């Protein structure tokens, strides 16, 4: 079989599997890591300056992407079978801040380029996996567009049972499917930190 044969996006069931695996991991991580909440501080009238993120930690040098997280990332790598004697490699980078907002960067690299002539169905397959991963998940909003020149899907997923919200982007390029998102308590979202997190991301050439 030609190893360079493009992968049909309608058969990328693994995109949904990836989303499901990551969201399931999120719920376990967040629920099992609940701590006594830190003392609350009065909200600031102005957003924090860039110096507020000086302590954020870059991903390891061997990561296939660049990004900064609020703490040293937990790194996980998994090789997943995708049929026809092929495998895909998933890498996950996870860290949380003092407000229990959890940050995720995941990549899923296929053995051959994806057919992205119609990228939206590919991205929605991954999003569908994320929504279906937890029975109480509901898709609050989604928007197709672009991120750093790549086709992207913005999303917000609510989990009323866990009082959690998952918010971020799915995007794809060549052989790689990306997830960059945060999970936070439904009533506590640090939008400025989220925007800094997104701005720190860069896919490797």
Q: Could you name the CATH topology?
A: Protein Transport Mog1p, Chain A
Work out the radius of gyration: 17 Å
CATH class: Alpha Beta
Biggest sheet features? 7 strands, antiparallel
How widely separated are the two ends? Answer: 27 Å
In one word, what is the shape?
globular
Summarize the model shown.
This protein is of the alpha+beta class and about 200 residues long. The chain contains 3 helices and 11 strands.
Describe it.
This protein is α+β, with helices and mostly antiparallel strands and 205 residues long. The protein is globular and about 45 Å long. It is built from three helices and eleven strands, in the order H-E-E-E-E-E-E-H-E-E-E-E-H-E. It has one domain: Protein Transport Mog1p, Chain A (3-Layer(aba) Sandwich), CATH 3.40.1000. A hairpin with a 2-residue loop joins strand 9 and strand 10 (176-185). It has helices at 13-32, 119-132, 191-199; strands spanning 57-58, 65-66, 68-69, 74-83, 86-96, 102-109, 138-147, 150-159, 164-173, 176-185, 202-203. Helix 1 runs parallel beside helix 2 (119-132).
Show the helix and strand layout.
Layout: H1 13-32, E1 57-58, E2 65-66, E3 68-69, E4 74-83, E5 86-96, E6 102-109, H2 119-132, E7 138-147, E8 150-159, E9 164-173, E10 176-185, H3 191-199, E11 202-203
Antiparallel strand pairs: 1-3, 2-11, 4-5, 5-6, 6-10, 7-8, 8-9, 9-10
Helix pairs in contact: 1-2
Keywords:
205 residues, alpha+beta, Protein Transport Mog1p, Chain A, seven-stranded antiparallel sheet, 3 helices, 21% helix
């Amino acid at each position: 079989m030609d190893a360079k044969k493009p992968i049909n996006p309608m058969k990328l069931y693994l995109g949904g599997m990836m989303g499901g695996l990551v969201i399931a991991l999120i719920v376990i991580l967040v629920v099992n890591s609940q701590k006594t909440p830190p003392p609350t501080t009065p909200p600031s009238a102005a957003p924090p300056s860039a110096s507020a993120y000086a302590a954020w930690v870059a991903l390891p040098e061997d990561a296939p992407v660049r990004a900064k997280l609020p703490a040293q990332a937990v790194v996980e790598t998994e090789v997943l079978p995708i049929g026809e004697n092929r495998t895909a490699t998933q890498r996950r980078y996870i860290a949380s801040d003092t407000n229990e907002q959890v940050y995720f960067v995941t990549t899923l690299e296929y053995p051959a380029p994806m057919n992205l002539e119609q990228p939206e169905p590919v991205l929605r397959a991954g999003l569908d996996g994320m929504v279906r991963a937890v029975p109480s998940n509901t898709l609050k909003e989604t928007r197709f567009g672009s991120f750093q020149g790549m086709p992207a899907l913005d999303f917000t997923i609510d989990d009323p049972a866990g009082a959690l919200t998952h918010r971020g982007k799915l995007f794809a390029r060549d052989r790689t499917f990306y997830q960059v998102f945060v999970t936070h308590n439904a009533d506590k979202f640090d939008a400025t930190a989220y925007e800094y997190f997104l701005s720190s991301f860069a896919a490797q050439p």
